[in-house]
Amino acid sequence: MNTDWYVQLVPAVDFFDGMVPLRRYLSSPADTKINNPWDLDQAIDQAKERLEWVEGAMKALEHVSRSVRWGWEGDFRHEPYVGALPWSGASHPYLVVKQDNNGSCYLVSQGFAVPMASELDMGTARVNAAEIA
C-alpha cells in the first residue's frame, strides 16, 4: 500500500485501554490455528504485512522528527501500542508511541489522520510514502 502516513503529536497518554502491545500485534498470526497449508501461508502473509506496516510507521515518525522537530528523541517509556479504527468498511491500525524523556505521545496512522477533538490535536504532519520508501 503506497498511502501517505500521518503523525500526530497528542497530549500525554497514560491509559492504553483497547490497544494491544506491539509485540502482541506482531505475534497474533502465530496464535492462528493451522489446519492446512493455506492457513500457514495466510498467517505468514499477515505477519509480513504487520511488520511492514510497523516499520513504515516508525520511519514516518523518524522522518517527522527530523523535519517538524516535535521533540521525538527515539526513547520509549514503554513498548508502543497498536489500536484500530473502523473506517470505510475496514479496520485501520494506528501506532501510539510514548517518549520516555518527557512523556510526549505520538500517534501514527496510514491513509488518514486519526480524528480527534481539536484541543487534543497538538499538530499533524503528513508524510508522503515515497519519501520514506
Molecular structure report:
With 133 residues, the chain is of the alpha+beta class. The chain is built from three helices and six strands. The chain has helices at 22-27, 37-67, 129-132; strands spanning 5-10, 20-21, 81-87, 90-98, 105-110, 124-127. It has a six-stranded antiparallel β-sheet with strand order 2-3-4-5-1-6. The N and C termini lie close together (11 Å).
| Binned strand content | 25-35%
Into which percent range does the helicity of residues fall?
25-40%
Report, as a whole number of angstroms, the end-to-end distance. Answer: 11 Å
Overall pLDDT confidence: 84
Q: Number of DSSP strands?
A: 6
**Low-confidence sequence ranges:** none
The class by helix and strand makeup works out as alpha+beta
What is the N-to-C succession of helices and strands? EEHHEEEEH
Please give the largest β-sheet.
6 strands, antiparallel
Helix tally equals: 3
The Rg value, from CA coordinates, equals: 15 Å
Shape: globular
Oligomer: single chain
